[in-house]
Amino acid sequence: MKIIVIGAGVGGTSAAIALQRLGHDVVVYDRMRENKPVGAALSLWSNGVKVLNWLGVGEQVAALGGAMDDMAYLDGHSGETLCRFSLAPVTEATGQRPYPVARADLQRLLMDTVGAEHIHLGMRLVSVADDGQQVTATFADGSTDTADLLLGADGARSVVRDHVTAADEGGERIERTYSGYTNFNGLVAADTAVGPKNQWTTYVAEGKRAAVMPVADGRSYFWFDVPQPSGLPYDAATDGTAPLHEAFGHWAPGVQALLAAIDPARSLNRVEIWDIDPFHTWVRGRVALLGDAAHNTAPDIGQGACLALEDSFALAISLATNTVSVEDSLRRYERSRTERAADLVQRARDRGEETHGYDPARTAAWYESLRGTDGSGIIRGIVGNITGSPVNLGVGTL
C-alpha cells in the first residue's frame, strides 16, 4: 500500500519506519521547514525504548540516552535532600533501561532512518478527502497526494483530527485544556553543583519544580514548572531567563547554579502546558490518528512520546495481522489504544494537580511523603504507567 503520514515528529517517523519495514510505500509530510522540535528533550521510559528496539534503532537510541541511574527530590528552598533512590527496579521490572534523550537528536535519528527522499518539509496540510478507495491530502501550496491510507500525526492542533471527528464539516471541534502551568526547558552542560551527573534531580517548593536529567555528551536536560495563567506576554529575545529568576531566584544554591548555566540564545524554550480531554474516535474510513493528534497529554508522567511510539507499534501490528480491509484494521488499532491513552492522559492530569499547588494541602502532603521515602511508591507509579503497554505482549512487568 501507499501510505501518507502527516507529521514528522516522533509518532509520524516511528510509524513510517514500522510501515516501511512491512513493505509499504510511505511518504511523510510536515509543515516545519527544518528539524526544530518543540522542547529540548524527552523521557523514553521502557515501553517507548522497546518500540525503538523493535524498529531496529535500539543501539543508536542507547547511545543518545543519558545514564539515569538514580532519582532524587530536594527541598527547593534549602537544598536538603528529601529522598534519593535507585531506578534499577524499573529496569528489572520492565526488562529495559529507560533513557532521557535530546528531542532533536532522536528526531534526527528517526528522520534519517525513514530516509530524506521520503520526507517533504514545508508542506502545510489544509484538507483531507476519502472516497472509500483512496485518501487525498491537499496542501497550502495547492499540491495534492493520494494514497490507500492516511495517518494524522500532526500534533495537538491536528488538521487530520478535524477530518476524523467531522469538525471540518461543521461538527464540534475538539479543543485543548490549559493545565495551569508554563514549562521552561533546555539543555546545559551537566554540573554536579546542580545534581549528580547520573541522577534525575528535582527541586520542589511552592507548587513549582526545577529539575535536571542526564542526556548524552555530558549534557543535562533541564526544566522549570511555573504555575501561572495562560497567555502571559513573553519575548524570548528580551525576557530570556528573567521569569525564571523572578520565580526561582530565592531558591537553593543548586537551582542558582542551574539558572546561571542557561544561555537563552542557545537553548531555552517556553511552553504553556495544555492537554486534550480523552476521546475515542481516532479513525474515520481510511484515515487514522496517532500521537498528540489522538491524545495530547501533559508531560507530568513523561509518557507523551512513549504513547506515540506505542501507537506506531499497535498500528503496524494491526495492519500486518488483520486482512479484512484497511478500514477494519484501523478500527482494531483504534479499539486497542483509546482506553490506555485516556488512562495515561488522566494520570498525567492527576499528577499535575498534586505537584503544582492547585490544592495547597494536597501538594504539601506530597512534599511530606517524599521526606525519607525509599522510593518504592514512586517506582510503582512509574512501572504502573508501563505495565499496560502493547509492546509487553501480555507479559506485563515482573
UniProtKB/TrEMBL annotation:
It comes from the Bacteria. Gene3D superfamilies: FAD/NAD(P)-binding domain. InterPro entries: FAD-bd, FAD-dep_Monooxygenase_BioMet, FAD/NAD-bd_sf, HpxO. Its cofactor is FAD. It catalyses: urate + NADH + O2 + H(+) = 5-hydroxyisourate + NAD(+) + H2O. Its EC number is 1.14.13.113. Pathway: Purine metabolism; urate degradation. Residues 2-348 form the FAD-binding domain. It is an enzyme of class 1 (oxidoreductase). Keywords: FAD, Flavoprotein, Monooxygenase, Oxidoreductase, Purine metabolism. PANTHER family: GERANYLGERANYL DIPHOSPHATE REDUCTASE, MONOOXYGENASE. Belongs to the FAD-dependent urate hydroxylase family. This is FAD-dependent urate hydroxylase. It comes from Isoptericola chiayiensis. The lineage of its organism: Bacteria, Bacillati, Actinomycetota, Actinomycetes, Micrococcales. The gene is hpxO.
